[in-house]
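Appendix B. Chain record.
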Amino acid sequence: MKLFIDSERKKASILLIYTGGTIGMKMDPADMALKPFDFSQILAEVPELGKFAYRIDSFVSEKIIDSSDVEPSLWQSLALLIEEKYDDYDGFVILHGTDTMAYSASALSFMLDKLSKPVIFTGSQLPIGVARTDGKENLISSVEIAAAKDDDGHALVPEVCICFDNMLMRGNRTTKVNSDNFRAFRSENYPLLAEAGIHIKYNRANIRYPDDPECKVKAMPLLDTRVSVLKIHPGITPQVVRNILCGEETRAVIMETYGSGNAPSKEWFLDIVREAIAMDKILVNVTQCLAGTVDMDLYATGKKLKDAGVIGCRDITVESALAKLFHLMGNYESNDEVRQMLDMNLRGEISK
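Structure tokens predicted for this chain:
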């Protein structure tokens, strides 16, 4: 449905994609329940969008999904939709629930190859129809950033990003850290791509640009989701560790370790790690800390993991590690190839 067109003043065309989440909810006066509102009325809810004079079309998912119910099938649908509509729009804004937004943004960053246009995820902590909602500012900033171009007509931010609370962050560097505050997301290991104040300040040195700004995106929808996550904690038992690391249906395991990549040095723990490696499991070491990096050469406990065959993924987030594994395993049958690719910086997800 077409929301706004001014053929003489048109600056850009944006596709607004609603998948679900708080931002698209409005209180029904009949029963006071939050329900999705009609996106054909988005200008009535956010009249400020009309002042941009952009062409903004909307696409509403056939089934509105609560953030907690997001599955990889949604990512596949989004990647294919963006590939299909790529030539028709200058940028894409995806409205999404906050709980799994960092997972979805990470996944899309790997699934959209040769991206040269903005794909901006946003949402809100309060419904857009509520007086103090953060949804309006998040949406307005996202649309403006998705439409922004340089003097040559190329996108200023040709990446998959999350725009929240006046901050634009690389999607695969982002984690949700607060469920009560408008500043719900953080990108602790990578600086902001842009900041929205009186003006939007673009930190262009932090933004990834394609070699060919005219290239066309290619969707890579193949995913292999046989990944488990093991969070190391005091008192963890051999049975729990073995069940996860050596699970029959598991091809890879993300080990959330302490600090710079440390785990128990007990022999039983290392024996199970070696057992899993002998089964050709892909074991990835990611820190539990919000900031910092895995360095398995720093302490003896980390060195033992490295010697056993565990792969250190530096400063990657858990969300990004999961998405990267899904993507690589979906496209490479050989676990050795996956291991080699894990160490490569594919979409700016890890520091060099």
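Further analysis of this model is presented in Appendix C.
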